[in-house]
Amino acid sequence: MKTRVLILCAAMICLLGMLACSDNGEAKDKAGESDSTAAAAKKEQPREVESVSTESDSLVGQRPSIRNADNPIVTIATDFGNMTLELYRDVAPAHADSFVARTKDGFYNGLIFHRVVANSMIQGGDPLGNGSGNAGYYLPAEFSELPHIEGTLSMARSRDIHSASSQFFICLKRTRTTARLDGKYTVFGHLLKGYEALHAIGELECVANPANPKEVSKPIEDVVMRKVYLSDADGNAL
Fold first, then answer.
1. What is the pLDDT of residues 1-34, one digit of tens each?
2. Is 124 helix (H, G, I), strand (E, B) or coil?
3. CA 160 to CA 162: how far, in whole Å?
4. CA atoms of 138 and 108, how far apart (whole Å)
5. For tag attachment on the chain, is the N or C end more exposed, with fewer CB atoms within 10 Å?
6. Shortest CA distance to 115 belongs to which of 168, 152, 178?
């Protein structure tokens, strides 16, 4: 009788030990599966990275190459320095020709850069100086695959893609904001010389813009285009 009891006790102890080992193994497998799944999910999670020009990447102090020797070149003289730009007639002929025509008749002389968006762009060319004016005509869109990067010259417009006229902007750097303009605004030139002037204007203190009170983009100090003229790549008048 005693022997039978001892055998039963031993059997129960063995059974409990097997169950304990089984539970621990199962728990360990589940924890491992959970860790592996979390790691995989973390690895597959995409990161949104903003493409921003750094100081070392900036074109300040450098001289971008001319795209096409037949393209016209203009210089914008301001109190912050001169900016010399190649007009991409080979990409956007209507926009380039319009800018040349308005330059020749002195349209831009005395106008201001009425809008300066930090780390984004400086905008000017409005005869009214408030963002609502134009040259009295509109240009058909001439979109291309050229990106909006530091120094890009592009034409401003309203929601109508064919509403560009005289207002233009020059990009301060490549960010998610300027990248969204690609293929939606007509790129018609690029800054060859005068990046110091561009960034000096881009760093001016601004207040809320009357045309858009939510946007702090109106320079406290007027940035006047003293003279806009046809030039060579060094900024010498033709």
1. 444 544 444 445 444 444 444 444 333 333 333 3
2. strand
3. 5
4. 16
5. N
6. 168
